[in-house]
């Protein structure tokens, strides 16, 4: 059974206007356990990280202001959540969940964070509900601990991984690949090592064709020994914040492709959930649950 990072603080209460997108972090583990996709022993609770691992990616001044709740009000507005000590602790534990999940993936082949995918967090600021960049922190940790030599970040959220691109813009040990909606947020995009911007309403067939023509080539040419996969389900046509046109089945086939390639090339992979904002919470949970179901089928 693959390991999954989850901590009760992941689902801490927020003001009314922010609760809906957060409730999936509580419902998804319940669904996976209810249907038997995973057992309780699959879950582990991350503690707080060593701050040196956070500071290896994020600037000290930003981190200090975040922890002390002294960020400029404009910086807080860019994050989009009201800042609180509970929110900061959540982000710290979330980052540690990705670090530990990456370590465990080296043993099991794959590891998950029930949250994560905070790819809009820059080295010196947060934005778009992202305070600390969990997969960037995890990637730098593996490099610093000499647990990996070359990392490929596969970001398939509907939004470009702008913070991740900025963090690793001068690091040739990390290759950043983002396939996202061309007209989606962020409207001023950063430059990843490879960006593929898809037109509005791109459907399953085209989406999967582009990915199939890209990801195997990247693996063969970049030769990563570890992959971080951001499996956002906001590529669905029903998503309120996305502009692509994929179905639940197309999203599931995307995950099958990524995991099958990781297994074929024997590359360990850490998976963070990323976005999902369809109006019906059942659609969000089903899409995210499919990612775990596919992993169970491929890694069992």
TrEMBL record:
Keywords: Hydrolase. It comes from the Bacteria. One of its GO terms (molecular function) is histone deacetylase activity. GO terms for biological process: epigenetic regulation of gene expression. The keyword Disulfide bond does not apply. The keyword Nucleotide-binding does not apply. Residues 24-288 form the Histone deacetylase domain. Belongs to the histone deacetylase family. This is Histone deacetylase family protein. It comes from Flavobacterium limnosediminis JC2902.
């Amino acid at each position: 059974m693959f390991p999954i990072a989850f901590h009760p603080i992941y689902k801490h209460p927020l003001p009314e206007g922010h609760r809906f997108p957060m409730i999936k972090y509580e419902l998804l583990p319940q669904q996976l356990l209810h249907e038997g996709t995973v057992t309780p022993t699959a879950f582990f609770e991350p503690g707080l990280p060593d701050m040196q691992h956070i500071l290896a990616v994020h600037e000290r001044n930003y981190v200090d202001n975040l922890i002390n709740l002294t960020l400029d009000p404009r910086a807080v507005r860019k994050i989009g959540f009201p800042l609180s000590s509970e929110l900061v602790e959540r982000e710290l534990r979330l980052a540690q969940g990705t670090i530990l999940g990456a370590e465990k993936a080296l043993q099991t082949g794959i590891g998950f964070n029930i949250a994560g995918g905070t790819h809009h967090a820059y080295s010196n600021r947060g934005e778009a509900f992202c305070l600390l960049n969990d997969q960037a922190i995890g990637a730098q940790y593996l490099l610093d601990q000499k647990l990996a030599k070359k990392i490929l970040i596969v970001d398939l959220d509907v939004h470009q991984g702008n913070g991740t691109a900025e963090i690793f813009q001068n690091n040739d040990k990390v290759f950043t690949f983002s396939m996202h909606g061309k007209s989606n947020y962020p409207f001023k995009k950063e430059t990843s090592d490879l960006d593929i911007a898809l037109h509005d309403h791109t459907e399953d067939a085209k989406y999967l064709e582009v990915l199939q023509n890209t990801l195997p080539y990247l693996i063969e040419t970049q030769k990563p020994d570890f992959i971080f996969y951001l499996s956002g389900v906001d590529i669905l046509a029903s998503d309120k914040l996305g502009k692509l046109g994929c179905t639940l089945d197309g999203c599931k086939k995307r995950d099958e492709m990524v995991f099958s390639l990781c297994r074929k090339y024997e590359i360990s992979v850490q998976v963070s959930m990323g976005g999902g904002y369809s109006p019906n919470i059942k659609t969000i949970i089903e899409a995210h649950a499919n990612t775990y179901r596919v992993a169970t089928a491929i890694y069992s």
